[in-house]
Amino acid sequence: METVFIGFGSNVGDRVDYCDRAVTLLSLLPHSRLAGVSLLYETEPVRDRTDPGEGWFLNGVVQLETDMKPRSLLTTLQEIERALGRDDDDRSGPRTIDLDILFYGDHVTKEPGLTIPHPRLHQRRFVLMPMNELDPLWVHPTLKQSVAQLLTDVPDQSHVRLLFPQPSTRYGSRPTCHVPPGS
Ligand code: ADP
Ligand code: MG
What we know:
This protein is α+β, with helices and mostly antiparallel strands. It contains four helices and eight strands. 24% of the residues lie in helices and 24% in strands. The strands form two sheets. Strands 1, 2, 3, 4, 5 and 8 form a six-stranded antiparallel sheet that branches. Adenosine-5'-diphosphate is lined by residues 50, 74, 91-92, 98, 100-101, 113-116, 118.
């Protein structure tokens, strides 16, 4: 089993519902166990490479323990994006759901169509905040810095705030990571 972090984001339509459906589908993947889900963050659209439109995003991160290989995980994430109505013709436009592999254990991969760790995660406050909630001590395998350190140093000043009120989801209490029982 590998520990995998998947970032999700939505900025059109019923964003809470898209995020909720995406997390549900991730929780149902074969050979996998949902180990954690961050709270939902509301974030200003960042125009670093694409133009996602004006709508603010909801973002979060899911932690999975999985036996799926990175390629088949990516293919599955793309199937979930399509199932949730993402427009393949305008991939950089507003998106019902965007799913990114952030970390796959400490694997480092750079091949056409798949870069792990995700090449821009350390520049994005909206990824680092939910990631920091799940596992602040997780170390980026090439930058050799913890998520907490990356968050402290990130120059990205775009607004990222906890969504309030948090929706109740079908998961009930969210599983937390790295909190030993009884602490
Ligand atoms: P972004 O998520 O950066 O806003 P997209 O979702 O449109 O942009 O990403 C487009 C491409 O990124 C996909 O076709 C996919 O092949 C590629 N890609 C490369 N590395 C990853 C990764 N780690 N996770 C998800 N997609 C990736
Ligand atoms: Mg993506």
